[in-house]
Amino acid sequence: MLWPDPAQRDRLVEIRDNLLARIAEAEHEGWLGEVEGLQVSLAGAEKKLVQLDRRPANRSVVDLGIPTSQPG
């Protein structure tokens, strides 16, 4: 899975917040087509934020050792 860049989290939050404000404005003005398009963009931004929040904190390599055969 390709993870969003954690350094972009603050920017994604800013985008999400801006989209929420624009949706509220569009609803107030009765711009239904605009609301629909903005909601699609909002869903994408929220999906990326969820991916970032679910991203493993430690993505280091774990040494599992070298398997050896047992005489038997």
Task: Report what the structure shows.
With 72 residues, the chain is mainly α. The protein has a domain at 6-54. It is built from two helices and no strands. The protein has helices spanning 9-29, 32-54. Helix 1 runs antiparallel to helix 2 (32-54). The longest helix has 23 residues, at 32-54. The radius of gyration is 21 Å and the shape is rod-shaped. The protein starts with 8 loop residues before the first helix and ends in an 18-residue tail after the last helix. The relative contact order is 0.15. The model has no long low-confidence stretch (mean pLDDT 87).
Task: Detail the topology: elements first, then pairings.
Elements: H1 9-29, H2 32-54
Helix pairs in contact: 1-2
Q: What labels describe this entry?
A:
72 residues, mainly alpha, 2 helices, 61% helix, 0% strand, rod-shaped
Helix-strand sequence: HH
Supply the number of helical segments: 2
Global morphology: rod-shaped
Total number of β-strand segments? 0
Main pleated-sheet profile: none
What's the pLDDT, averaged over the residues?
87
Gap from first CA to last CA: 41 Å
Q: Gyration radius, to the nearest Å? A: 21 Å
* Low-pLDDT stretches: none
Q: What is the structural class?
A: mainly alpha
Strand content: under 5%
Percent of residues in helices comes to 55-70%
